[in-house]
Amino acid sequence: MSDTNLALRISNPSKAVDTQSIVGWGVDADPQNDPTYPYRNRTEDNHSGEWRRPTQQEAQVELLKSVEHKWLPAVFGTASPPSGVSGSMRRLAFRWSESNWAHWLLLIAADRVNMIEGLVEDLGRGHVPNIPKEMGVPAEWRHNKAGLLKKLAVAAAIGGTVTGLIVAKRNAGKREPSAS
Amino acid sequence: MRAMNYRGPYRVRVDEKAMPRIEHPRDAVVKVTRSCICGSDLHLYHGMVPDTRVGQTFGHEFCGIVEEVGPEVENLKAGDHVLVPFNIACGQCHFCKQGLFGNCHESNPQATAVGGIFGYSHTAGGYDGGQAEYARVPYADFGPTIIPDWMDPDDAVLLTDVVPTGYQAAEMAGIQKGDTVVVFGAGPVGILAARSAWLFGAGRVIVIDHIDYRLESVKSFAPAEVYNFKELDDVVVFMKKTTDGLGADVCIDAVGAEATGSMLQTILGKRLKLEAGSAIALHWAINSVKKGGVVSIVGVYGPTGNMVPIGNVVNKGLTIRANQASVKRLLPKLIEHVRTGNINPKAIISHRVPLDDIADAYHIFSDKLDECIKPVLLPSGA
Ligand SMILES: [Zn+2]
Ligand SMILES: [Zn+2]
């Protein structure tokens, strides 16, 4: 490898040491010894992080950018920009890097909040979502009637038990008013 | 236009949405002719992938007819029928220059580890996908490939992900002639990985899953030895026994985040979502492979950490290779394999469903009803 190629391969040339001063530098280099085959095209490898960048897309919606990015990638999706409470949670999550657990757990939590926001939004514009249909219950009925009936029976039993417990507790409460 | 609309875990529907527009000079708008639901869409559908927002349209496997192109797209014109690789890749960044089109650095603001993917949460760029009548395709001068006249669109749509992913799983494994290859997972990617292992010269191919109808389909498509792990006491011990006590030369994880088979992994990864999904298939792969062997991972895992037996990787001297498939790099070779009949992708399609019935299609695929292997969605106009 020539020195010019080497210069290209060092990500931060100002941090480079003079390899000529290191005894034995590169004597065992074997271009065939490459576990990353067929990926890394060493000849064109430019470690400086600079390349001919595509035209930059203009952001018309709010974007959240990983703090690990040096610049905004040239294209991006514009689906479902952050909004509401879940949007605030997502903005918060993007204060941390991708290596931080908090980043991802906050996003997962925001997803759950977002689901409720979606429901409220549907109702807000007068649309009552057909949840069984959205969950594919008609398909379950066609292909797994027994399974569906069993699930419904279990749900009814749990519902019945819960109602029973609440009623029992209320009744108990009536019989034994608390001392305070 | 009509498009899939995610409403939360296990809830999807088709709604009227705004037509996609050219937002960048290298964009195209494509009228979808076929799209698929992918096993990895199920991770989104189950709420496993962080930053999957309500209102998004999924679908990273689609082909369609070019409707409109941006001013910087010169190699495509309206009317071309193209297959669209699931990776959104610029073709000129640090990684694209190395053929790592699945790792493009110019397509996803929200994360650096993963490149842009159509309809795959905001963690993969926040793009709407192709489970719709129309889709916006960025870098349209680079990714989309014109479908050859002789090719069936049913084959073409499978070249957008599952065929290259299965093929790359075998390629990354560095399979040598005569090697014993174990594939964990008999979904579409596992089936294709098993088929591809033969193309690289495997001497023995074994596929492990827990659903009999999926294993039957591997037998006819790949063909491979198949085992249902529910009928095995211990998958790893069985693998050692059937390979002279040494282990397989190569293990391929074609399952990813939603593997069944371990209570602990199910609770931590699938229920509590405290790790990037259940890593049981990866455990089995690492523990069933021979010392000095190769583990190739194409199963999708989330971005958080995982309980992975890294000590065994070190002690056994394993090579681990993993990536999203770089579809565009593999297409010329795979189109040739389809032409010569070495691979017959459309044979794995089990369901053809109108886009409007998408909720049923997701549920059938997710719950493995009606012997579902691979559902293809047909937009109303197609
Ligand atoms: Zn896919
Ligand atoms: Zn790129």
Global morphology of chain B? globular
Percent range for helical residues of chain A? 40-55%
Number of strands of chain A: 0
Which spans of chain A of ≥5 residues are poorly predicted at pLDDT below 50?
1-5
In DSSP terms (H or I, runs of 4 or more residues), the helix count of chain A works out at: 6
The biggest beta sheet of chain B is recorded as: 7 strands, mixed
Indicate the radius of gyration of chain B in whole angstroms.
20 Å
Q: Report mean pLDDT of chain B, rounded to a whole number.
A: 93
> If you average the pLDDT of chain A, what whole number results?
83
Order of helices and strands of chain B: EEEHEEEEEEHHEHEHEHEHHEHEHEHE
Structure classification of chain B: alpha/beta
Task: Give helix % range of chain B.
Answer: 25-40%
Poorly predicted parts of chain B: none
Strand content of chain B: 15-25%
- What is the distance, rounded to the nearest whole angstrom, between the alpha carbons of the first and last residues of chain A? 86 Å
Biased composition (Basic and acidic residues) (chain A): 41-54
Region (Disordered) (chain A): 25-54
Domain Alcohol dehydrogenase-like C-terminal (chain B): 188-263
Keywords (chain B): Metal-binding, Oxidoreductase, Zinc
